[in-house]
Specification:
Strand content: over 45%
Largest sheet: 4 strands, antiparallel
Low-confidence stretches: none
Structural class: mainly beta
Helix content: under 10%
Order of helices and strands: EEEEEEEEEEEEEEEEEEEEEEEEEEEE
Radius of gyration: 18 Å
Number of strands: 28
Number of helices: 0
Shape: globular
């Protein structure tokens, strides 16, 4: 079955499931069982395959988004809370940040053969953010207050960068010139140069920011602020928060549609997704989900 309308794929942590939801009206097309506590999702460039990290199930579900069925699971004896997942642009490599192993696992696609395990040398390596050219992956380490930079040509860690306390949300701007880091325990974000990794700016945002995403045109950044139950909107020309948008309780995963006209925010404690109109910077509706939605992905109509 091909997607006839745009969909969001929402991970329901406390149901061990993913929901396929149409973005026109919020109709749930299917709820698919996966492993325990699914946290993050990565989609191939053709959007036909999704990888879902089952953090407490220590596995990764492989999902056919057309049939909405699970094809199999990737497992490893050293998986301890597999979390963020990224797929290289050519589709040949799958990178997995395994938080409590403090390692990055690299798999070949589509065989899912393990190519390499890379210890970060830091504590609680949690997320992955590629540079626009995919030369580097930036890895926030929750327990070390650092970012690690992995060179994707060698698949080795080449440096660690000091940031704020408990960094989690991180993204490289589409220009490649700077990156943002959201620090949970400081309620702020840092702006770092990608040339020398010095701090260009540091500003407050909402309480306990856990995710940070740039709009497709790079003009805005959104952060999900877990304990203030809102989304900070940052003007990237000034590196300055210009608005906070109230959403549901405990917002987490954020995804923009490819046009940048809508953003979708998973609200962990109200069991719904906020739909934000990016032009007006207002929540316009909510879609019901399963229990404790967090990770979220966008599947364009085929």
């Amino acid at each position: 079955m091909m997607a006839t309308a745009n969909q969001i794929l929402v991970l329901n942590k406390d149901e061990a499931s993913v929901s396929f939801i149409e973005t026109t009206g919020g109709k749930c097309l299917k709820v698919l069982a996966v492993g325990a506590h699914p946290h993050e999702v990565a989609l191939t460039s053709d959007h036909r395959t999704a990888y879902v990290s089952n953090a407490m199930g220590n596995s990764i579900s492989i999902i056919d988004t057309r049939t909405m069925e699970e094809l199999g699971r990737i497992k490893h004896e050293e998986f301890q809370f597999p979390h963020d997942i990224k797929i290289s642009p050519d589709g040949r490599k799958l990178y997995v940040a395994v938080t409590y192993a403090h390692k990055i696992f690299i798999y070949e696609r589509p065989s899912h053969t393990l190519l390499k395990i890379v210890p970060t040398g830091q504590r609680m390596s949690h997320m992955l953010s590629p540079s626009p050219d995919w030369r580097y992956l930036y890895i926030p380490n929750l327990g070390s207050d650092t970012l690690s930079r992995l060179d994707t040509e060698t698949d080795e860690i080449e440096m660690h960068i000091n940031v704020g306390k408990k960094p989690e949300g991180v993204a490289v701007h589409p220009s490649g010139e700077f990156l943002y880091v959201a620090n949970q325990d400081e309620n702020n974000f840092y702006v770092l140069s990608t040339k020398h990794h010095g701090v260009l700016a540091k500003h407050p945002i909402g309480e306990t920011p856990v995710r940070l995403v740039f709009s497709p045109d790079g003009k805005l950044a959104f952060t999900a602020n877990r304990n203030s139950h809102d989304v900070s909107v940052i003007d990237t020309q000034r590196h300055w928060e210009i608005k906070r948008i109230p959403v549901g309780r405990w917002p987490g995963g954020i995804v923009f549609d490819p046009t940048g006209m809508r953003a979708y925010v998973a609200n962990n404690k109200t069991n719904d997704v906020s739909v934000i109109d990016v032009q007006s910077l207002k929540e316009i509706t909510r879609f019901e989900t399963g229990i404790h939605p967090d990770g979220i992905g966008f599947i364009p109509a085929s």
